[in-house]
Amino acid sequence: MWAMSAAGCRWLGTAGAVAVAAGGWVAGTLPAREPWGIWVPYGPGATVAATVVAYLGLTLLVAAWWLYGRAGAGPRHARVTLLWWTAPLLLAPPLYSADVYSYIAQGAMVLEGHDVYGAGPTVLDPGGPGGDAAASVGGNWTDTPAPYGPVFLLLARAVTWVTGGTIVPAVLGMRLIAVVALALIVWALRRLGRSSPGGEGGALWLGALNPLLLLHVVGGAHNDGLMAALVLTGVVLARDGRWVVGSAVVGLAAMVKSPAAVALLFTGVLVARAASGRTVLHRAVKGLLGPGAVAVAVAVAATLLAGTGFGWLRTQSVAGTIHTALSVSSDLGLALGELLRLLGGADPDPVKAAVQRVGLAVALALIARLAWQAVRGRRDPVHALGLALVALVVLSPMVQPWYLLWGTVVVAAATGGRDGRVVRALVVLSAALVYVTAPSGATPAYGFALAAAVCLGGALLLRRERAAVTGPGRVPGPRAAERDRARTT
């Protein structure tokens, strides 16, 4: 089997991150208008060459991450390695997605008093704050209302106000929020990972050093990182007995993106377990109602403070109207709808919507089952939450590559990257999904082909590794013997 020292992996991954950033300066998701002349487009030849460089760098980063899991590095080494791998991406233009331009434009809409839940960025004055960002928004989102909660829109508004909506500083401001979220994820992974089977180092490897997180939370500045950070923080607080504050933090997470609300159910399990000295009825009522009541209060307060109104309640299904090839339910619904159209002329859209609803119903059933298993003590509540978020992503009507991070960071905290079918699947998928989108944010056919090849290759590598290991099988991760001791850098 291939092996490399932790220091060698650090250097290899840093080289990959530098190549990704360098390629991104030419082939990244560049703005349509940029008055400073820093992030400007180049000719087609330079763009193709830079894209190749970025993909090669991405491959080095993925390989370094995979091998780093075998190197047995301790938590301190992992944290320093994270700094090395993150630093090259900090000043690069947006990578792999144009969503950050939507964030800036929506912040400008809130700043100017537009109904962000009733219109899209096209309502902005092209010459005003956020106008350049609105011109750079991806085609699917130009007239789409915001699907995000008021907490995130307040942050986007603050960035737009401080920077005047000027593209470069506004993007860097949104990236600063993403980096703060990454720091919070690291803190929570350390707290939860210490009691996990794989330890703190394994949790950091799977949850923070993950290339999918580095590219899409740091490089793409996606708000999914902030949502995940607040969910993990809330879980840490609830586990430590401060369930009111923890529930409030999870409520804030749901006011960034609504899927975080799933965490309230498992926060309730933690609350009910902590109230072990009370009657069964008291524990059940406290667990079922307590976290939800706190989160509702936070949602109401955040909405009133933001002044955006409660339109977020009706825009949560907006994303589902945009077809993404990674959504199993949308693909099945589209295929079935087209088949029925060919056979009898039926409208395929209602068929697709019905299949999407079935997918969500199945996801809710799985989430309820995982919560019940946690209540009965058959699953750790944190692990069950991670699995629930993974199930929600798999069966969601819209799936983007970075959505996998919702559950991955929580599973990492609960397992420390130790063996298990779900962990193995998350490892392979994390390595594969980074190839789906190009640095420009496009989703070319060759990206899916590369992702499929990585899935196949990763599965074969794991199979070889498990066959070569005597005793209990493991995926790449810090050695169990080093779980509780940190190596120096």
Q: What best-fitting shape do the alpha-carbon axes yield? A: globular
Q: How would you sum up the major sheet?
A: none
Task: Specify Rg, calculated over alpha carbons.
Answer: 22 Å
Number of helices: 19
Q: Quick one: how many beta strands?
A: 0
| Poorly predicted sequence stretches spanning 5 or more consecutive residues | 470-489
* Residues in β-strands, percent: under 5%
How far is it from the N-terminal to the C-terminal residue, by CA?
A: 24 Å
Which class best fits the helix and strand makeup? mainly alpha
Order of helices and strands: HHHHHHHHHHHHHHHHHHH
**Helix content range:** 55-70%
Mean pLDDT, all residues:
90
Subunit organisation of the chains: single chain
Give structural notes.
The protein is mostly helical and 489 residues long. It contains 19 helices and no strands. Helix 4 (99-112) crosses helix 7 (167-193).
